[in-house]
């Protein structure tokens, strides 16, 4: 069992079916398979072999998707790196991954060169650029020029062979290289295809970053079924709405901030999205305000996924959404979860504890970091760092991240509870609550807020409204600051650490929005 078999199969049995759509490119499975083979053979001719690591610093592009599938056939290990990272962030990842080759956009080539000089790793002949020619880099076109489109030689791959290293988002600490084998990715393909009810006739849209592990949650089952996979260069809410309507998209995955954006886009209408059989939310909890809107305007298609890239999943199925809207569902097939206390003992039903889990998606470990692996995997269970409860039917409810919890005056304050209140205000598009130090209470909550376009309101007015509507005095926010947008990582997750730093240090790169009363 190895991932590359999927593409080989569809190129043989569904050669004319459109497999990939990107911008003006509409590639049949036969055509895309030929492109993949050309890159695979080019890399093999350059001396890459099974187990070698190729890092990418690329935005969404055909070359990135092609590399994913070339890796699936050759045993080369794909190491997708967020193009949003600055030089120091790239340095720490490359120091850990020690890539044998690097495929970068022209915008990142200088940083890649500097980092390589500091690390003394890959040779000059292993640098490749996608896009404009860059001195010292071989262009992608020159790399594949003259390479065969025939199937590459069998690499002797098995399910135990490493397929990729995905670096954690770094929202709560040091990024870690999460390893996935071919077996794990095959399980992604088969299990998610079943959960999403995908078929060979499905049309799947991905508008977020392909370097985000969430991309594999819909991309791999799409290729498993031989469906049509459409992806965008960057997320644009209006473009998403138009693409769904034009292409009759059946399946889409979005993070909560993207769901808010498409519903608030000027061209949104429920009719445009009526082809959807699945609207999946993942990456962070979706606030009830938007869940209620989905239930009203797009009934019968909402799924929510909770999980960790390290390897376990729960899914709230669309058939359970109406009766369990606050839940993130039950364990996926072959997955298990438990809620445990500080000693690792299972707590009673309804009690809050840390969510731990295990299953066939479970990583072998963090790349070259056995120390961090031992902190996360204990007695065969992955410790998520998230807090939750389960009800009497076994449905999981998220409370918050353990590290995001605020302890104010000895009381546990969960930011998500306050955020759920804030987003009910008519002027609020998005909210993020975090704790700051306080001389009297130890910590106190602060709310960062993005307001809807065209709505005039002050931070003081929002603070007063929030503190009048929260359920307890300890949930009252100390301050509100308004931003035009939140800092996010490639996955679209809000970086609360950056918000906290900006608030405490008044960093110029995170200026407060001018209040509308000025």
Short description:
By secondary structure, the chain is α/β, with parallel strands linked by helices. The chain is built from 15 helices and 26 strands. Strand 19 and strand 20 form a beta hairpin.
Low-confidence stretches: 507-518
Number of strands: 26
Mean pLDDT: 90
**What about the largest sheet?**
9 strands, mixed
Q: How many independent structural domains?
A: 3
Residue share in helix: 25-40%
CATH homologous superfamily label of the largest domain: ANL, N-terminal domain
Number of helices: 15
Strand order of the largest sheet: 2-1-11-10-12-13-14-15-16
Please report the first level of CATH classification, the CATH class of the largest domain: Alpha Beta
CATH fold node name of the largest domain: Rossmann fold
| Beta-strand content bin | 15-25%
Radius of gyration: 23 Å
Query: What CATH architecture of the largest domain would you give?
Result: 3-Layer(aba) Sandwich
**Roughly how many Å apart are the termini?**
63 Å
Question: Any idea what the shape is?
Answer: globular
Structural class: alpha/beta
How would you characterize this protein structure?
- The structure is a single chain.
- The protein is built from 15 helices and 26 strands.
- The chain has 518 residues and is α/β, with parallel strands linked by helices.
- It folds into three domains: 184 residues, Rossmann fold, CATH 3.40.50.980; 213 residues, ANL, N-terminal domain (Rossmann fold), CATH 3.40.50.12780; 100 residues, 2-Layer Sandwich (GMP Synthetase, Chain A, domain 3), CATH 3.30.300.
- The strands form six sheets. A nine-stranded mixed β-sheet has the order 2-1-11-10-12-13-14-15-16, with helices on both faces. The protein has a five-stranded parallel β-sheet with strand order 4-3-5-6-7, sandwiched between helices.
- It is globular.
